[in-house]
Design goal:
By secondary structure, this protein is an alpha+beta fold. It has three domains: about 90 residues, Pseudouridine synthase (2-Layer Sandwich), CATH 3.30.2350.10; about 140 residues, Pseudouridine synthase, CATH 3.30.2350; about 60 residues, PUA domain (Archaeosine Trna-guanine Transglycosylase, Chain: A, domain 4). Strands 1, 2, 3, 4, 7, 10, 11, 12, 13 and 14 form a ten-stranded mixed β-sheet that branches. It has a five-stranded mixed β-sheet with strand order 15-17-18-19-16. Strands 5-6 form a two-stranded antiparallel ribbon. A hairpin with an 8-residue loop joins strand 5 and strand 6. Helix 1 packs parallel to helix 6. The longest helix is centred in the first third of the chain and has 12 residues.
Length: about 300
């Protein structure tokens, strides 16, 4: 099997738990994912099957979309509902001020990752250090939020829940946005719920739950859930002749005169439109980077 399964991860399991599930269902150890979801998050978790694991970087690095609920009026040590939660003491601003605060996060800016995250510093993982009461001083990094729509602002006892539709680039922590919004408004805030609705070109409405994938496996139809990895690669396409395809598979550099002065990384296909891999085109020369052998072609 080779391809990507659009898995709808439920709240509770880790992303690694879902990888273990898919290893059991497929019988293949070559299973990965394109973009971690925290245990308290749900939604699109692209599962990479077989040689598709070689394209993790390309599939992880694209734009993502989330539906998130930010709870104002308290703070969390983990910046999400895992806690511990500390109630705030300051008044929560009105809806207009909340909306202005949310919209201030549209654009590119430096973001401080959560203390409880998978980021590493000096060989140490942030969340492990934080649980040992030795929180790391993680450097900020530049992220981009393309757009935010405020879907609802719902007051409750001593808190306000703000639900947003957020579209962003890779590496963006929605937990950090919730924390920073609470700090900017002066009332505290944390991420109460998160669902990823789009990632790697996949959508939540098309995703399959673990139970649905179990039933497909039991009926001998698990392969029906596979999405060809070629259809998801965010790269220009380049098609080769049969002779050049054979040379590409053997790692040889190929002269590609028809592209002219264009260049960069390309998704490379043979004459039958089968994915061969990824190559870099520089000065009319195509250098193979990642190659799928014929036995694993999608």
């Amino acid at each position: 099997m080779l391809g990507v399964i659009n898995l709808d991860k439920p709240v509770g399991p880790t992303s690694h738990d879902m990888v273990a599930l898919m290893r059991r269902l497929t019988g293949d150890r070559r299973i990965g994912h394109a973009g971690t979801l925290d245990p308290l998050a749900s939604g699109v978790l692209p599962i990479l099957v077989g040689a598709a694991t070689r394209f993790s970087a390309e599939l992880t690095g694209g734009r993502k979309r989330y539906t998130a609920t930010i709870r104002l009026g308290a703070t969390s040590a983990t910046d999400d509902g895992e806690g511990p939660i500390t109630p705030g003491t300051a008044a929560i601003p009105d809806d207009e001020a909340i909306t202005r605060g949310v919209m201030a996060f549209v654009g590119s800016f430096e973001q401080r990752p959560p203390a409880f995250s998978a980021r590493k510093l000096g060989g140490r993982t942030a969340h492990r250090a934080a649980r040992s009461r030795q929180a790391l001083s993680l450097p900020s990094r530049r992220v981009t939020v393309d757009a935010i729509d405020v879907l609802s602002i719902t007051p409750a006892e001593e808190r306000v829940d703000v639900t947003i539709d957020l579209r962003c680039g890779p590496g963006t922590y929605v937990r950090s946005i919730a924390r920073d919004l609470g700090e900017a408004l002066g009332c505290g805030g944390y991420l109460a719920a998160l669902r990823r609705t789009e990632a790697a070109g996949l959508r939540a409405e098309d995703a399959a739950t673990p139970g649905e994938l179990e039933r497909l496996r039991d009926g001998g139809h698990l392969a029906d859930a596979l999405v060809p990895v070629a259809s998801l690669l965010p790269l220009p396409r380049l098609q080769l002749s049969a002779d050049d395809a054979a040379r590409f598979r053997h790692g040889s550099r190929i002269a590609v005169a028809s592209i002219g002065e264009g260049g960069g990384r390309m998704a490379v296909f043979d004459a039958a439109d089968e994915l061969l891999g990824i190559g870099s085109l520089v000065g009319g020369q195509l250098q193979p980077e990642k190659v799928i052998q014929p036995s694993g072609a999608a």
